[in-house]
Amino acid sequence: MIASERFERAAVLGVAVAEEARRLLRFHLGDGEAGADGTVLVDVPYPDAAVMTALLDVAADCFGERGGSVEETRQAALETLLQLAGFDDESQLNSGGPGYDGRRT
Questions:
Q1: What are 35-81's pLDDT values in tens digits?
Q2: Is pLDDT at 98 greater than 50 in this prediction?
Q3: Is-contact 56 78, C-beta < 8 A?
Q4: Nearest C-alpha neighbor of 89 from the set 98, 80, 81, 99
Q5: Measured distance CA(31)–CA(47) in Å, rounded
Q6: pLDDT at position 97, please?
Q7: Residue 48 to residue 18: CA distance in whole angstroms
Q8: pTM of the prediction?
């Protein structure tokens, strides 16, 4: 496999991981309000929490994220994943976006 094919596959995988993380977060996002700094707490129960942890660990390793603790490293990876998934109108995971029908799947 040539380098360009590996890069393309890695890019597709990265976007898929980002969208899956975003889907899980959206699925478990409650009616909670954002804190003063805009932070929103999302409680992700097992087994989705195990999937989320694995996604964040893989992303942290791929992106070279580092933090003072495992949780800080995962938080940095989450921020990068959400930037990669984007918050634009074209994402199917945005409420009201193309392909989003409001159902939890």
A1: 788 777 788 899 999 999 998 998 888 888 888 899 999 988 888 87
A2: no
A3: yes
A4: 98
A5: 21
A6: 40
A7: 15
A8: 0.66
Task: Return the closest-CA partner of residue 59 out of 25, 83, 35.
Answer: 83
Q: Which amino acid is at 7?
A: F
Tokens of 87: 């918050």
Q: What are phi and psi of 64, to 5 degrees?
A: 70, 30
Hey, how many other C-beta atoms are within 10 angstroms of the C-beta on 21?
Answer: 22
Task: Using a pLDDT cut of 70, give the percent of the chain over it.
Answer: 77
Amino acid sitting at position 87: F
Q: Which long-range contacts (CB under 8 A, 24 or more apart) does 16-20 make?
A: 17/55, 17/58, 17/59, 17/81, 18/59, 18/81, 18/82, 18/84, 18/85, 19/85, 19/91, 19/93, 20/51, 20/55
Asked if 89 and 23 touch (Cβ cutoff 8 Å), the reply is no
